[in-house]
């Protein structure tokens, strides 16, 4: 701190302002006919709490803003929509270049294989955008990047559609989704809601669902 000015507070305020501009969108809490893609390709319990009992994460890194900032630029992609009966599934990749869907992710360590939730998101973006090929680009803090190419896959998108229907029903009935354990849990702002109380009912992981490495 220099003089009487709190520079850490200034930086935090600036980060919060940027986050509000580029953060992933969430539908009106009770609107179970509008579902955003990120809500169903990650833990649906977390997405449910974001709608009805939202808590802001304790820490926010600039790395989480990377994809959002790209989407705001002229060459960023636009929100796309896919109809599932009377449900509108909305999703947005970071870029579409030469008909290739591109999603950027910032990570501390580059993965050997794409994370399950990321490949599921990328594949759904290809279906929603009507494209055949996609790339996930993982960028680490030192600026190195690791890329994974993927072709559009029907069975994986069918799983997304199933999860959209499940999440829509749970939102409509105001029922909390079942627990989907993953490595992300320890960093989740809702961790204590899931693990302090006794967990009941069946539990399964996103890794088990998709047979891929999870975060």
From TrEMBL:
Boundaries of every DUF83 domain copy: 120-196
Xref: Pfam families: Cas_Cas4
Name listed for the protein in its UniProt record: DUF83 domain-containing protein
Organism name: Candidatus Nitrosotenuis uzonensis
Taxonomic lineage of the native organism: Archaea, Nitrososphaerota, Candidatus Nitrosotenuis
